[in-house]
Design a protein that fits this description.
By secondary structure, the chain is of the alpha/beta class. It has a single domain, classed as Rossmann fold (3-Layer(aba) Sandwich). It is 28% helix and 27% strand. The chain has helices spanning 52-57, 79-87, 100-109, 126-131, 157-166, 184-194, 224-238, 242-248, and strands at residues 7-14, 17-24, 27-32, 37-42, 69-73, 92-96, 119-122, 137-142, 167-178, 199-203, 209-215. β10 (199-203) and β11 (209-215) form a beta hairpin. The longest helix has 15 residues, at 224-238. 41% of the residues are buried.
Amino acid sequence: MAFFSKRKIFKSVADRNTVDVSEQGGVRSLHLGSDTVQSSMRLSAPNDLELPYTRSMMAFLLFHPEPRDVLMIGVGGGSLVKYVYRYLPGCRTTALEINPQVLAVARSHFFLPPDDERLTVLLEEGAQFVATHPASTDIILSDGFDGITLAEPLSTQLFFSDCRRALRPNGVFAINLWGSDPNFPTYLQRISDSFDGLVLSLPSEKHGNIIVFGFACNQNSPTWESLRERARQLQTRYDLDFLRFVDRLHDLNVYTDKRLLV
């Protein structure tokens, strides 16, 4: 077993906001004013998803395997942006980041690619953006933590309802939440209310992250057999453990022996 010491390689301070970058064991990580890891990148595989919760967010592909447009709220180190850009070449991505320091560090230290015809990165607040872009995207991925907790504008009933309106008819919303957050039940209820109960929760492998999905339309209660077949196909294509995602959907959702009820 190898042990590596964490070393700080960059620090940005502006308007009382601190952004740090550290490295340990070949993994570079982003921190927002604390030791909490907000984003990580393995230097030998910068386009892959290092943190388990980011891999779990890609489980939306089980329900919408061919999105044309993805909206991401919260860039962080750009892990999901880079992954979608690299592995979903037919998809356009719009990524929103409210903190210019974070965006600058994503560009300088985490290899976030420049904008082109498939990628647009904007310095904008996510809640305001979705409120003014109805029926504009297939997928919304929301990961908006401020280093301590979920950003308040990204946790309101209005935000979740605006996200549903921003989706196309078969769209999927996914948000990263902490299961240990005392407000988790409140957030889950708000998402359920905004999406008419069409929600699923997927616990990540580590650290207590729970990805909550909201669906713009009924999923017709897919059978476990069909989900596993889809997972096998996606696993071959993307080298992510989609079969494990399917298995973990048992943990926090309503189902029968034959179907996932959503």
